[in-house]
Amino acid sequence: MRCLIVVGARPNYIKAAPLIRTMQKDGSFDIVLVNTGQHYDANMSTNFLKELGMPSPQYNLGIGNNASWTKQLHESMVGINYICQDRKTDCVVVFGDVTSSLGATLGALSAKVPVAHVEAGLRSYDNSIEDTHRVLIDSASSWLFTPCKYSTANAERTSGIFKDRKICFVGNIMAESLLRFWPNVHSCKNIKTDEPYVLVTLHRQQTIDNVEYLKEILFLLDNLACKHKIRFVLLKHPRLQKNMDNNGITEKTYSHIEFYPPVSYFEMLYLENRARCIITDSGGVQVEASILERQCLTLRKTTEWQITVDCKLNKLVTTNTLSDAMLEIFKKPKLEFILLKDFMAKTTPPKWDLDVSQKIVRCLKGI
């Protein structure tokens, strides 16, 4: 079976790595790796390929993260359509909810090639562009690989254009990546972790494209750092850096916050594991924090990862409730760092294990 595996943004690489590894071991798949180039920053793409031991892509569409949504969608759609026909593809595998995953889905659809959606069925019901992508990709997919009970129910409720589509509850591919690559996790050279800190990541349009809201968040963190002597380590996603530069937002204005450039996947896991708590708007970080048993405060009204809220390790907050929620965490005893041997003894959501990619492979082969 010739499978086109489409990656383009940071989360895609994390999800694709264990699946590619399992497909290679199986021997039944001819893998064609396509990088759409949605994230072209080395820390967000090229370095990931090296870290995760992934093969070099046979194709790079080079759509770029500075392109408009419509251009990213169009170029990924046209590119995947061409490759599908040129390489006589049997299946296109897409991940998550990024723009190029939707473009790849539409490109495959127009080439009459079936699509497999890894991480299907997730819904935040917040009118976000990501949720729009999720619904459209699910509707056009022939295989829907779901990570949890909520996503499985959502997938079953979503109308699809193929009557014979298959909905398979396989578990969370991000969990497999974390468990599989945990021995490779290492510290950050430029970030001290021997003192307590709060890790902060912000990247969603709804959070940082609204300049006044972004300033409100930064002011709140800076004030908390000054008043309560709390150390904030904020990792600057390229979108955040761009918005700060374009709107004259300087790090000096918020001098009590420690700003750092993006880190590698292994460094990120290290920072998450040693954080006193995590403030984020990222779905992937919510998942990783839950597995690592770090308290996570999510700056959103809803989340596609409701199961992490059920685990009592993730709490949805606003700028009005963030301070109290964080200070409450600091009153509790500090959690120990997670060690590799502890993972197997942990109680995680069902099927968040090392067999997710194997289940996907079996489903694709019709076993």
Automatic annotation (TrEMBL):
The organism of origin for this protein: viral metagenome
The name under which this protein is listed is: Putative UDP-N-acetylglucosamine 2-epimerase
Sorted alphabetically, which InterPro entries does this protein's record hold? UDP_GlcNAc_Epimerase_2_dom, WecB-like
**Parts forming coiled coils:** none
Q: Where is the UDP-N-acetylglucosamine 2-epimerase domain?
A: 22-364
